[in-house]
């Protein structure tokens, strides 16, 4: 061996190697194996990050779609609230005209018919927007839909029954626009005869 070859052999870096079982006589470079394992770990980490990013993107898309649908669904809610007062006034105007006056006054009857037609047209517009009127007389009081203004004693109705409606409520889809203002039955105290007899337990 020449001096040059001996020098090269002496200065060549040492590497960890083992016999290759597939190809006897050949050696496996452990440094290369370590590099492959590191790359595989990096690929797994990048794959996990990608899956997380895809999931987050999908969640964001669903949230934006839901918000868009909610906005479209209740877009007319503010305007509808403003129109509730108009509906109230139309109903009051019709209720204030006695039937006897309608029978004897043709002009008043024509006015009544015009107001009634306007009310029906407004009700139809409410229906198209999924706005429903709440008139809960005779129903059980529901704090989600009703607002109790007073209690009414002596009604012979179960306690908490709506016995009077002062103002209609309205809902739009499943959202409350305005609660119904109501009076509810007051529970009456039980008569003395209904009380269980007192038993003296003192000896």
Automatic annotation (TrEMBL):
Matching Pfam families: GrpE
Transmembrane annotation, as ranges: none
Record GO biological process: protein folding
GO cellular component, one term: cytoplasm
Top-level taxonomic group: Bacteria
Region (Disordered): 1-23
Subcellular location: Cytoplasm
Residue ranges that the Swiss-Prot or TrEMBL entry lists as coiled coil: 36-67
GO molecular function: adenyl-nucleotide exchange factor activity; protein homodimerization activity; protein-folding chaperone binding; unfolded protein binding
This protein's UniProt keywords: Chaperone, Coiled coil, Cytoplasm, Stress response
Family: Belongs to the GrpE family.
Subunit-structure text: Homodimer.
Role: Participates actively in the response to hyperosmotic and heat shock by preventing the aggregation of stress-denatured proteins, in association with DnaK and GrpE. It is the nucleotide exchange factor for DnaK and may function as a thermosensor. Unfolded proteins bind initially to DnaJ; upon interaction with the DnaJ-bound protein, DnaK hydrolyzes its bound ATP, resulting in the formation of a stable complex. GrpE releases ADP from DnaK; ATP binding to DnaK triggers the release of the substrate protein, thus completing the reaction cycle.
Descriptive protein name: Protein GrpE
GN (gene name): grpE
